[in-house]
Design goal:
alpha+beta, Protein Transport Mog1p, Chain A, Nuclear Transport Factor 2, Chain: A, seven-stranded antiparallel beta sheet, four-stranded antiparallel beta sheet, 5 helices, 11 strands
Amino acid sequence: MLGPLLFASILSLGVTPVNDQATMESSEFMFQQAIFESGAGLAEEAIRACEKRFGREIQLPPQVPAVAFTHQYGRCYGLAGLDEHLEIHYRNQFKPENDYKIELYPLENRQQLEHLSFQALELTEQTAAKFYKGPLNTLQLLVFEKADWQYLLTTANRASTEIGQRELTEIAQSLIHAVNRREPAYAKWGTLAVTETKRKYNMDVVDYLYMGRTKISSVLAEEKFKLWLKKGNVEFGVYVTISYHPGTDQILSIRYEEI
């Protein structure tokens, strides 16, 4: 009698039989295998690869959706042009509605997305955003810019989805607050210097040094940067000086001096 009673007790406790456990492990392996075969890898490695490629620090939103995920992975897309970006993906193998993705594009390669009908939002007094909600079983998308990056936060739009506009907005705000605590006053001028220099010379900026601020008068100030450019076998340095009105931040001129 002990054998049948013991077997019945195991079932009542919800212990997974060996065959079911093996099936779950096989399913888990196949899911992970499909992820890595797609070219994705560890999120941390993807972030480091993109920081090296773009020559600037990457900061992800410290807040993530309050739902369960079984997998997190990333990929640094290195093709020239608009496809250059970082992608971090959170998924739940058993709940397709728990699907959340972060994409970061350098501002000079920002995605325009004119084909989508966006709703304008204000994340903070200084930062605007736009939100798109597609038809059921498509996606939701929040787009905003901060520091040197354009951020695209995407989640599934299903009937059972627990991540919506409010959650994506809070995630974006968590990133803005984190960056503002760390970002120096000259950061926006540095972003402008890098963007305009890359546009002028059509070359990559591989090094960046802040040279300082000079207040010339109550209506004129200057921020100076030293950038190092490279394309193929050609490389050289450029001093970039941005003149602006310190009261309004209106840009008056940008000067370039090749070293």
